[in-house]
Amino acid sequence: MPLHIIIGAQWGDEGKGRVTDLLAAEAHVVARYSGGDNAGHTVTVSGPNGPRIFKLHLLPSGLIQPHVTGVLGHGMVINPARLLEEIAALRELGIELTPARVKISAAAHLITPAHIALDQADEAARAAGEGKLGTTGRGIGPAYTDKTARRGLRAELMADPERLGDAVAEHVRSTNQSLERIYGQPPLDPNQVAAEYTAYARELAPYLTETSLYLHRRLNENAVVIAEGAQGTLLDLDLGTYPFVTSSSPTSGGAFVGLGVAPRFAGRIIGVTKAFQTRVGEGPFPTEAFGAEAERLRGTGANPWDEFGTTTGRPRRCGWLDLVLLRYALRINGVSELVLTKLDVLTGLSTIQLGVAYQAGRQTYSELPMGPSDLAPFQPVYESMPGWSEDLGDARTLADLPAAARNYVARIEELTGVPVSLVSVGSERSQIVRTD
């Protein structure tokens, strides 16, 4: 069976977690291939005592489905303390995650408190100047930097807790030099951190697996495998709005590298986009809205689905759907179908704007001439569409949607050239419109 890849087609936060959870109902394995606990995936499941809300940061969202095995691929950077907290939190919600259900790549890299301290010190130094990036401060960038510099701590060290402790102590001592001399920050205690990681290793060592081999075998056994991306295309280290990007490759190509599986297994490539546009942190945002428009799209924070970060709680910047950037994301990922989330949020707007092109001087662009890195010269060209007032929560087919909502979906398909296969009309698992 092929490998189905789920990617974010914007700056992340598109709702990939609930899409992964939905599609995992018919899958055997769900594998995360990039990022760390800077990701936040929320899944809402109805139950006899009301909805249960699962917030995941490292574990694949498909694990909410009881028959699924989850894989943390070697493209990830993993904070073992956060991972153990997440496993314990799911256990309290009735989901038992044993080594039979969770596989951690031995080649994934570990995040330590030294990485976190360095990340936060560097961002504070940038904020004092003009170069603030808006990172989550979770140590993601420094961990990937160590990986690239070939001095990282790989998860395989957890198989020998004492050896890991020695490596962590040396890593902390080395990082302390930068913290003290460059940033003027207090040093960390190498022995204390080493002792903590020795304890983590004893708990997590049974989960270590050669996940590339495991996935290869499962695919050859005709298992259905879903590769779950974190963040979004426009945060890709190479292909995003650099330098306001993450430190990994959340695009579809990153799935093959981050999981160690061959492109010949590729099946569906599913791009997830909101019905509008959001981003967290700094960086360009051509279709950003302000004032009452932005507040309307963001919500107040009273609802779990309002636009506040799952990981950080930061309010997201909000605006209108940008089809120039969406077409770019669909092209570089080879997306075969779109999932449109949060269409219900637009209910009640009399007019909805679609960013259909950019303008710079007298020139109009439907595609980016130099990629998305420098968007400063461009102003959006909008197309206005009529809104709707009907509640969409009970819609399950296209025919259930009001005509204006159907026209909005159809216009996105027309201007991107990619069919929309699913539309979410609420936060719960069942609130999905299937277009077929």
Describe the structure.
The chain is an alpha/beta fold. Helices cover 30% and strands 20% of the residues. The chain folds into two domains: 324 residues, Adenylosuccinate Synthetase, Chain A, domain 3; 99 residues, Adenylosuccinate Synthetase, subunit A, domain 2, CATH 1.10.300. Strand 19 and strand 20 form a beta hairpin. The protein starts with a strand and ends with a strand.
Features:
2 domains; Adenylosuccinate Synthetase, subunit A, domain 2; Adenylosuccinate Synthetase, Chain A, domain 3; 436 residues
Please indicate the percent range of residues in DSSP E strands (runs of 2 or more).
Answer: 15-25%
Distance between the termini: 22 Å
Q: Supply the helix-strand structural class.
A: alpha/beta
Q: Detail the poorly predicted runs.
A: none
Q: Could you give the count of β-strands?
A: 20
Radius of gyration (CA) equals 22 Å
CATH class of the largest domain: Alpha Beta
User: At the third CATH level, what is the topology name of the largest domain?
Assistant: Adenylosuccinate Synthetase, Chain A, domain 3
Tally of separate domains? 2
Assign the CATH architecture of the largest domain.
Answer: Alpha-Beta Complex
Profile the largest sheet: 10 strands, mixed
Name of the CATH superfamily of the largest domain: Adenylosuccinate Synthetase, subunit A, domain 3
Question: Could you say which overall geometry the principal axes of the C-alpha atoms support?
Answer: globular
Mean pLDDT score, rounded? 93
* Order of the strands making up the biggest sheet: 9-7-5-2-10-1-11-15-19-20
The percentage helix is 25-40%
Helix tally equals: 11
